[in-house]
Amino acid sequence: MMTNAQPSPRWKLLAPLAVAIIVALIPTPPGLAPHAWYFFAVFLGCVVGLILEPLPGAVVGLIGVTLVALLSRWVLFSPEQLAAEGFNAAGQAFSWAVSGFTNSTVWLIFGAFMFALGYEKTGLGRRISLWLVKAMGSAP
C-alpha cells in the first residue's frame, strides 16, 4: 500500500539550522569554553529537529553526529587538546562519532526494532497468534 507522504514544510527544515546558528552567535557564557558552547548549539539544533521532525529522528541524529565530527576542531576539542603534540583531531573525531556503535546494548535495541519491524511487515505475529488461538481455543 503506497501512501502519499507530504513533504515537510520548508520552515521545519530550516528551524533546527536557524536555532543552532542563533545560539552559536550568542556570546559564550562566562566560565564556559567556546567549543562547548558551539557543541551545545549543535545539540540544541538536533533537539529542535527531533521535536519538529522535518526528517526521521534517526536522520536528524546522524546529521548532528556527522556535523560535530566534521566541525570537531571548533566544536568537539579544546585549543589545548588541538595543540597537544601527536593529537590527531580527525582520528579522534571519527572515534567519538562511532563510539556509540561499540555498545552491545545499542545493538540489542537495534536488533529488537528490526525484529519488530519484520513481524509487522510480514504479519508473522498475527499468523502466530491465530495459530495459537486455533490450537488452544477449542472447547473441551
UniProtKB/TrEMBL annotation:
It holds the Pfam family Na_sulph_symp. The keyword Nucleotidyltransferase does not apply. Its main location: membrane. PANTHER family: DICARBOXYLATE TRANSPORTER 2.1, CHLOROPLASTIC (PTHR42826). This is Anion transporter. It is found in: Membrane. It is a multi-pass membrane protein. InterPro entries: CitT-rel (IPR030676), SLC13A/DASS (IPR001898). The keyword Membrane applies. Belongs to the SLC13A/DASS transporter (TC 2.A.47) family. DIT1 subfamily. It comes from Vreelandella olivaria.
